[in-house]
């Protein structure tokens, strides 16, 4: 009996230590290339000019970046070459990489999942081949340049499916799962050790995850990890009766639920909090909320949440209100939540 208790204690300690050491703090920086092209110069809290990725890593303990990739985007924004250039910079700093495939020529999210122009007339069978070939093409470019992503997302916020209407979850659930499987198999062909993520929005909404992921599993889709978006701000825009702490509580419960039900780890791959320089108290509140998210994701999910990525923290106020930098391109107090 004593031996059993000791073994159980050591297992819990081991799990806790693993969760502490393997917990990743990161940032989606898909806008960074465009910002730099437009002359944005980033600074630390003391006003010293700094390279953005180095600032995020050194001052805010961010060990990874996330980059989206589109199929045939106008002007090359978020194409595979822009991905490669940023991946090289991250590797030079010793940062890990998450690749976020949208399988679109532009934005894909719960409200829209447009088929790339070049694929529009294709059959389901051909479109699965398109997904496979595009995935292999992008990842092979990274591999040829010595870049190995740690995580790969097959689709972006696919709550309602992907590649509409062909892969809409309500109209064609089997085909949605088929696209997920095609992407999964393509990732494993190039990088067998990469962690493949299925990514949904509204991390606080357990019913969404049950519905979507049950369909993926039912029809043969595969994934290694579940990615969640967590935006209390946007959730309350849609449902004013909600409050941020309740949303965070529900998200943590959903992480525990999903990890147990589907037998895999979870990661918050997108989050963000409001920057309002005219009302500093809003940024203090954002810091408080983010501090809670990081603390509970690390310590209160039975070791199954592997990290928290901030979506475009380097964005400046005016364009996107949930970045984490001010109009001087310096971190706001929100970023302090990442320093432990």
TrEMBL record:
It is an enzyme of class 3 (hydrolase). Transmembrane segments: none annotated. One of its GO terms (biological process) is pectin catabolic process. Its EC number is 3.2.1.89. Keywords: Glycosidase, Hydrolase, Signal. One of its GO terms (molecular function) is arabinogalactan endo-1,4-beta-galactosidase activity. It catalyses: The enzyme specifically hydrolyzes (1->4)-beta-D-galactosidic linkages in type I arabinogalactans. Pfam families: Glyco_hydro_53. The keyword Hydrolase applies. Belongs to the glycosyl hydrolase 53 family. This is Arabinogalactan endo-beta-1,4-galactanase.
């Amino acid at each position: 009996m004593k031996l059993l208790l000791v073994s159980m204690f050591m297992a819990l300690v081991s799990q806790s230590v693993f969760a502490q050491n393997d917990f990743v703090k990161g940032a989606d920086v898909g806008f960074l290339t465009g910002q730099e092209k437009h002359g944005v110069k980033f600074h630390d809290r003391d006003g010293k000019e700094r390279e953005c990725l180095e600032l995020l890593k050194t001052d805010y303990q961010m060990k990874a970046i996330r980059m989206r990739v589109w199929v045939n985007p106008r002007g090359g924004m978020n194409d595979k070459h822009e991905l490669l250039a940023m991946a090289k910079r991250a590797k030079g700093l010793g940062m890990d990489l998450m690749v976020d495939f949208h399988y679109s020529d532009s934005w894909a999210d719960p409200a829209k999942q447009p088929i790339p122009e070049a694929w529009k007339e294709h059959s389901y069978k051909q479109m699965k081949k398109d997904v496979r070939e595009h995935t292999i093409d992008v990842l092979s470019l990274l591999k040829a340049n010595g870049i190995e992503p740690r995580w790969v997302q097959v689709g972006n916020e696919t709550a309602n499916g992907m590649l509409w209407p062909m892969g809409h979850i309500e109209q064609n659930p089997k085909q949605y799962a088929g696209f997920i499987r095609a992407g999964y198999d393509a990732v494993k062909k190039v990088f067998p050790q990469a962690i493949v993520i299925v990514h949904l929005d509204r991390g606080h909404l357990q019913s969404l995850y049950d519905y979507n992921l049950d369909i993926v599993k039912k029809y043969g889709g595969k994934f290694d990890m579940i990615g969640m978006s967590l935006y209390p701000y946007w959730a309350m825009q849609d449902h004013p009766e909600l409050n941020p702490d309740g949303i965070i509580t529900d998200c943590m419960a959903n992480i525990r639920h999903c990890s147990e039900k589907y037998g895999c780890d979870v990661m918050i791959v997108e989050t963000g909090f409001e920057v309002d320089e005219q009302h500093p108290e809003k940024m203090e509140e954002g810091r408080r909320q983010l501090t809670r998210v990081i603390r509970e994701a690390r310590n209160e999910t039975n070791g199954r949440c592997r990290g928290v990525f901030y979506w475009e923290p380097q964005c400046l106020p005016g364009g996107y209100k949930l970045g984490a930098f001010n109009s001087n391109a310096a971190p706001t107090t929100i970023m302090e939540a990442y320093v432990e």
